[in-house]
Write a structure and sequence with these properties.
This protein is 27% helix and 27% strand. It has helices spanning 37-51, 68-78, 94-108, 127-135, 188-194, 235-244, and strands spanning 2-6, 9-11, 33-35, 57-64, 82-87, 112-116, 139-149, 152-159, 162-169, 172-176, 199-202. The longest helix is centred in the first third of the chain and has 15 residues, at 37-51. The structure holds adenosine monophosphate.
Length: 249
């Protein structure tokens, strides 16, 4: 079975995100970028399935600027076989990404698509679901366990207050949650090997996809600063403050 994994280049999660002075978005110039953490989990899942002999080929796809090839190379160093960059200048919204991914799926015909549950920059949590709707394929979002059983996938999903077990027919789209696995670190020899793996660059036009934005960002601003805390002498003072000042009890 061939697996397609969608990966996004985002601001490194260890970096403090700064809002642009004009409020049009977040600063990405001269900022360390990395693979979206949920996409790393998606790649790791595919690599483990290949190591287990269930998957024959892993194709990783990124939609974004030229530098997204670095993110694809990281996925290739983790164990993916082939990369595709669909080159788009500037921001791409989830619907456009889903349309691009659909065009790639039509070409590549994978048995399974894995995306992250959400990108930590836009927090949209939409792309996988939109892709499954465009393809007319079953979907399982927020997965924490995946087992292939013939033409089905047995899945555990993270839901409010517990876990849900479902079985979905393949081909399908799944989105990776935090507890699915712990991604491996890439090793230097694998980084070197990844340089020789195939990486194709396409334009959305070549796929017949219009990636124009459908949503307009009105304004991006920093969350309000938290006020300083106060030290209380004892429980009685804490209770009094919660009752009379914060009025929460
Ligand atoms: P989102 O819907 O933006 O929260 O993203 C959810 C998941 O969709 C991500 O974890 C990726 O797997 C995939 N995705 C979103 N944007 C892109 C992109 N520009 N290129 C490739 N995959 C993406």
């Amino acid at each position: 079975m061939k697996v397609l994994v969608a990966i996004k280049r985002v601001v490194d999660p260890n970096i403090k995100v700064r809002v642009k002075a004009d409020g049009t978005g977040v600063e990405t110039a001269n900022v360390k970028m990395a693979m979206n953490p949920f996409c790393e989990i998606a790649v790791e899942q595919a690599v483990r399935m290949k190591e287990a002999g269930i998957v024959t080929e892993i194709v990783v796809v990124a939609v974004g600027i030229t530098q997204s090839t670095e993110t694809l190379r990281t996925a290739l160093a983790m164990g993916a076989d082939r990369g595709i960059l669909v080159e788009v200048a500037g921001e791409v919204q989830p619907l456009a990404v889903a349309k691009v991914l659909k065009a790639i799926v039509d070409k590549e015909k994978p048995g399974l698509v894995i995306t992250g549950k959400q990108a930590i920059d836009d927090d949209c949590n939409q792309t996988g679901q939109m892709l499954s709707a465009l393809l007319g394929w079953p979907q399982a979002a927020f997965i924490s366990k995946l087992e292939i059983a013939g033409d089905h996938a047995d899945i555990t999903r993270e839901v409010d207050g517990g876990l849900e077990k479902i079985s979905i027919k393949l081909p399908a789209v799944v989105t990776a949650d935090l507890r699915l696995n712990e991604p491996r670190y890439v090793t230097l020899p694998n980084i070197m090997k990844a340089k020789k793996k195939p990486l194709e660059v396409l334009k959305p036009d070549a796929l017949g996809v219009d990636v124009a934005a459908r949503l307009t960002t009105l304004k991006v601003e920093e969350p309000p600063k938290r006020g300083a805390g106060v030290k209380v002498a004892d429980v009685a003072e804490l209770v009094s403050k919660l009752k009379n000042e914060a009025k929460v009890i």
